[in-house]
Amino acid sequence: MRLIFLGPPGAGKGTQAKLLTERYGIPQLSTGDMLRSAVAQQTEVGQRAKAVMDAGQLVSDEIVNEIVSDRIDAPDCAKGFILDGYPRTVPQAIALDRMLDDKGLKLDAVIELKVDEAALVRRMENRVAETVAAGGTVRSDDNPEAFRRRLEEYRAKTAPLSQHYASTGQLKTVDGMADVDAVTAEIERVLA
Ligand code: AMP
């Protein structure tokens, strides 16, 4: 099973992707997690990406395309994978189509989580509060200014992907405002 999750920041893509990894036994490939890990390890990519990420802007297509292409080749992706946070631009989607084609792989579905934007800021604030309460480290781009910028980036560059995948017939839209279990059930229904 090869899936893509689409949706604005805070829509619940990461949460749903994690739940599906257990159900299907395939990994969640979050480009945000991969980039944060590169930043923490101070790799060359991490050093290039840090300031861009902190500002809530998008890292270059070239960097993320390469990270994803390498990751997909790992043995744990043999049965499939769930892409969370990639592709995020139409050129990334085109690069992914070509990459999968070259590797002889096909996408099964693109799941878009539809959410009310007013709820997203509240979700981000809740995520920050929960992380702090659990003694964790808050993401450096989970602050109102960077979050607003991430939403703008989403509207300008990522939202057009819905049209891209609707035209290929792969898009499945799910109401992301319901509670977590109901959203998971709906995703399983559209995939069945
Ligand atoms: P996320 O964890 O998906 O919200 O991603 C956090 C940040 O990582 C984003 O705001 C971007 O700066 C960067 N990022 C993650 N995925 C991508 C991508 N596919 N293209 C460009 N930048 C990305």
UniProtKB/TrEMBL annotation:
GO MF terms held by the record: AMP kinase activity
Positions contributing to ATP binding: 10-15, 127, 178
UniProt keyword Kinase, yes or no: yes
Region NMP: start-end pairs: 30-59
Residues binding AMP, per UniProt: 31, 36, 57-59, 85-88, 92, 139, 150
InterPro entries cross-referenced by the UniProt entry: Adenyl_kin_sub (IPR006259), Adenylat/UMP-CMP_kin (IPR000850), Adenylat_kinase_CS (IPR033690), P-loop_NTPase (IPR027417)
Predominant location category: cytoplasm
EC number(s) recorded for this UniProt protein: 2.7.4.3
Domain of life, per lineage: Bacteria
Pathway: Purine metabolism; AMP biosynthesis via salvage pathway; AMP from ADP: step 1/1
Assigned keywords, A-Z: ATP-binding, Cytoplasm, Kinase, Nucleotide biosynthesis, Nucleotide-binding, Transferase
Matches recorded under Gene3D superfamilies: P-loop containing nucleotide triphosphate hydrolases
Pfam families reported for this sequence: ADK
Catalysis: reaction(s): AMP + ATP = 2 ADP
CDD domains reported in the protein's UniProt record: ADK
Cellular compartment(s): Cytoplasm
Role of this protein: Catalyzes the reversible transfer of the terminal phosphate group between ATP and AMP. Plays an important role in cellular energy homeostasis and in adenine nucleotide metabolism.
Subunit structure, as described in the record: Monomer.
Family membership noted in the UniProt record: Belongs to the adenylate kinase family.
Record text about domains: Consists of three domains, a large central CORE domain and two small peripheral domains, NMPbind and LID, which undergo movements during catalysis. The LID domain closes over the site of phosphoryl transfer upon ATP binding. Assembling and dissambling the active center during each catalytic cycle provides an effective means to prevent ATP hydrolysis.
Protein name: Adenylate kinase
Organism: Sinorhizobium kostiense
